[in-house]
Design goal:
Shape: globular
CATH architecture of the largest domain: 3-Layer(aba) Sandwich
Number of helices: 11
Strand content: 15-25%
CATH class of the largest domain: Alpha Beta
Helix content: 25-40%
Number of strands: 12
CATH superfamily of the largest domain: Isopropylmalate Dehydrogenase
Bound molecules: nicotinamide-adenine-dinucleotide
Structural class: alpha/beta
Strand order of the largest sheet: 2-1-3-12-11-4-5-10-8-9
Order of helices and strands: EHEHHEHEEEEHEHEHEHEEHHH
Number of domains: 2
Largest sheet: 10 strands, mixed
Length: about 375
Amino acid sequence: MQTPEASRTVKVAVIPGDGIGTEVMDPTLRILEAIGGKHGLDFVWQHYDWSCEHYTRTGRMMPEDGLDRLAEADQILLGAVGYPGVPDHVSLWGLLIPIRRTFRQYINLRPVKLLRGIESPLRLQQDQSIDFVVIRENNEGEYSEVGGRLYRDTPEEVAVQEAIFTRRGVERAARYALELASTRRRRLASATKSNGIVHTMPFWDQVVHEVAADYPDVEVRDYHIDALAALFVLDPGRFDVVVASNLFGDILTDLGAAIIGSIGIAPSGNLNPEGEHPSMFEPVHGSAPDIAGQGIANPLGQIWAASMMLDHLGHPDAGAEVLAAVEATLDAGVRTPDLGGTATTTEVADAVLEHLATGAITARTAGTGEAAP
Ligand SMILES: NC(=O)c1ccc[n+]([C@@H]2O[C@H](COP(=O)([O-])OP(=O)(O)OC[C@H]3O[C@@H](n4cnc5c(N)ncnc54)[C@H](O)[C@@H]3O)[C@@H](O)[C@H]2O)c1
């Protein structure tokens, strides 16, 4: 395991997963190889076919020593897991959640930024932009295994699920968000619901404000989650950094992905900020069974996630170059159908590669991904 600083050889565990996860991964690896060549990074891929297909074959989403094998990697790239036929709680708890927890990836970092070349579904004013970051607590909170069911299949049946909030867990999420805000526009919005959830949420608010005392330059404001969701739509320009519990952050970031044009472009990083374990980078979207196999999945969420991996590795110049190539691709009108275009996954990735190689993209006929005559 290497710390997240500049290094020449980088071992990356690659888990494409299911559905379109397998379609967006290969183009992303090609892009990483291209940018690695320019910035002196030599990627060594460790491929794992862990998926719902693996589950139906073996009864496990990943082998028993899966986490030990991943521990040898510097970073992890994940496509998406989940497929009809395997219950979602099996695919999630059999792969994604054990990785996030075992490797103490306690920060889920999700940029919500409207890229050049994309129109938001919101009616933004001329001077309005969307550029904020959601920090989702990624290891505890509402997603816990504590609970159970009693009197199954009887009229008296009971289901109990406990939310777990620890001081350490809330503190470190709050501190990460405050540090980030202090390097940006110095505004932190904290998602709460202390009026309805009377134990954990007042605790969350208290701990966030205790940590905020160390950051007097950052303006901290609590928002009830329902009002916060409405403001993502009505006034997204007001946000800089948003910090939220696991469930609230999960829901907010799908909304965040929607307001920046498509869930197909939104990225996320599951970070172990100390670099003691590998971090994991993945698109926000799932395996999209409705479009899997058609070659039209938008690869930009996975590619943007790879650019975040470059940042985390201590190569922000390389990360910025990939993101600039993504924006240039969108600007040139090379878009998959989810963004109103007709380009294929491969055509979009080829345009990103072309920009990385030449600094430009050959004019194409609108949205087709083909070179103009
Ligand atoms: N992190 C993950 O691995 C993850 C995240 C979310 C959902 N899932 C799983 O994925 C499966 C499908 O879930 P879902 O349908 O609710 O969510 P989804 O994100 O897979 O799809 C939602 C909608 O967005 C579209 N979409 C998503 N990504 C796209 C892309 N890159 N390009 C173009 N269109 C895209 C899909 O076609 C679909 O209409 C489920 O099994 C779910 O559990 C996994």
